[in-house]
Amino acid sequence: MRQSKLFSKTLKEVSQEEKSLNAQLLLRGGFIDKLMGGVYTFLPLGFLVLKKIEEIIREEMRAIGAQEILMPVLHPKENWQKTGRWQSFNVLFKLKGKDKKEYVLGPTHEEVLVPLAKKFVFTWKDLPVAVFQIQDKFRDELRVKGGLLRGKEFIMKDLYSMHPDQKNLEQFYKKVIKAYFKIFKRCGIKEKTYLTLASGGTFSRYSHEFQTVCPFGEDLIYICQKCNLAINRDIKPKIKKCPNCGSKKFKKGKATEVGNIFQLGTKYSLPFDFKFKTREGREKPVVMGCYGIGLGRLMAAIVETNHDAQGIIWPLEVAPFLIHLITLKSGKKKIDQKIQKEGEKTYQVLQKKRFEVLYDDRKEKSPGEKFVDADLIGIPFRVVISENTLKKNSIEIKKRSAKKAQLIKKSSLIRFFHQYVK
Amino acid sequence: MRQSKLFSKTLKEVSQEEKSLNAQLLLRGGFIDKLMGGVYTFLPLGFLVLKKIEEIIREEMRAIGAQEILMPVLHPKENWQKTGRWQSFNVLFKLKGKDKKEYVLGPTHEEVLVPLAKKFVFTWKDLPVAVFQIQDKFRDELRVKGGLLRGKEFIMKDLYSMHPDQKNLEQFYKKVIKAYFKIFKRCGIKEKTYLTLASGGTFSRYSHEFQTVCPFGEDLIYICQKCNLAINRDIKPKIKKCPNCGSKKFKKGKATEVGNIFQLGTKYSLPFDFKFKTREGREKPVVMGCYGIGLGRLMAAIVETNHDAQGIIWPLEVAPFLIHLITLKSGKKKIDQKIQKEGEKTYQVLQKKRFEVLYDDRKEKSPGEKFVDADLIGIPFRVVISENTLKKNSIEIKKRSAKKAQLIKKSSLIRFFHQYVK
What we know:
Distance between the termini of chain A: 21 Å
Radius of gyration of chain A: 25 Å
Oligomer: homodimer
Low-confidence stretches of chain A: none
CATH architecture of the largest domain in chain A: 2-Layer Sandwich
CATH topology of the largest domain in chain A: BirA Bifunctional Protein, domain 2
CATH class of the largest domain in chain A: Alpha Beta
């Protein structure tokens, strides 16, 4: 992609109401745009990051045997009345059609998933089974939080698992925890992300959240200093020692929730009469679990934990591009033509080898402006072609996370980047 | 994917209200499920087809230089008041939040795109530029049409282009027509899809639709027998001879719209005061085009034009899988064990070579039941392992579109399929 053609541009400053760091950096870098409070557009760079995150989640969900589907945003009122959540779910967006029928904009999908699964799950042979989707969700939040952290409209991966019994659910639940940590590792936030006990368990005593420690987090967690299990502020008063290892030493930290998982048990099977026939021919309600990851939240958490004063430092697997190729003008016309030519050539070569490259080919920008943009956007590698590199028949490479740049021979460029791509 | 683990199942029959062929076949094959009138879930098989279609569209949009973004579903009322469509757009879904603010569920995105583009487009240097998204759309249709053809909620690719003048728009408009035919070719419906003159042009006299001829089409088009340009029923009374070649011979045909393209001119630039500075320093409104493809509609049109009495015949590029591997039981225990073992081995080998395989490993199903399901689901190649093939040390391959099967040596299996995958 040529930066001169990029739809979005970096911004010098953004509105003062955007207090959170992730929103500041994502807006300034041209990753997202705010349509209104809690509702954002993903711009080309942000969309690329979103797709990378989506693909990581998809791969790890498939790896534990979950099948992808896509359920609608519009739900019929009746389904939500059946579970009582038409009344009790307090951030439900409701609307009425011209046909006078009432609808819900799905904030979660148990009310659609369970009646759907009832059409295909009949006996023990059909269990366990797990399906997931990556879909827009809607919540009528009065207080929207900074940037992508809590919005009225947001993208979620929601996974639903169905089991013959509690034991089978627990086995799968453990698998999901492992899969989530794989996802967070690939997204570069695992080191700061903690499995956290929280309220809201229906069948089990507690639910689990995945909380990423960061200064702008809206939650407060207590991390066991011995085993790393964390406890959410909400339930900490009731818990004196770590339920996992017994230690009493905790460290307090602000954190933001990037995922949550619930053992639902039969909470949603019962209202929809979702049963299966056991091997012995008896009828039993299906035991369920549900598991969410907010993709925007995850992106926000990645930014909150991967940046410096100059801008974002995207982890390799979620970066919009691998390489930010930059030509620097010298001010001398003939040399600038040579630099431009070398830039074009390098861009073509890298593209041919299928590396993902953002090419800053903008002629009017000064070296300083280009460097500032590159640091803000945060692509993992900056490759510079300048009067200096031409002289030395070399190319300058700087890792975004490193302090210093290095010169390498032009001929080793491809080999250098092959280290970083599978 | 093992068919024994597949979340969805084929159905013997579906509700009588589903009159359209595409809905009948997609529902029976387990591709989609109906949540309510005009609102469908994509099940695992349907989701795979949807992703294939999405990827084809994405590739062809990128090939003409369009950049992908993702705009929200929730729009503020004010934007729709500005264009007058808060009142005039008659299938608008409106809703009110707890904050008493009113919102629109986006049926199209000019009202979001133009104010967004205004933040990044300032001078002639920033033009032309084109952005697209693949996103859920909502229309409060009172009469929903068969299956995926016209719904309250549907997935669309919408592309918006911005230009300095009408001539530049027309150049891009022609590029889009070519790109659309590439998409329809890859989706297997090009032969039956016609560029069609329709009403609704704002800047130009007419707009263009892409209409696919099929028996259940809700539109009527008149196809010029000389040059293949088609005319929509709506405007045919005004048109006596083909505006392209002058011929007066037309053939009538039922058709369904799979895409439409508009030269918007300055219709949406003006209300939002979306201007740019020309090379000469004058201010001029940006000239725009917009271009849609309904992904569900496209899937429906593919089914309507690619099937036989037994079921769907998916074109290669949009098929959920390339290969439907099937083991047939013989009724003799020892031989069945051998067949099962050979099936597993073949499945592993094909997967290792990265072919997309649905493996019908269901032990309780008869050969007849498996064949009926395979024909209904419509995967391009059926590969059978049976007592007969074991005896002959071979494998049976049948193209879904062919009448007869062929036996090939087991050792040539991989080579056979490498013909069909890049």
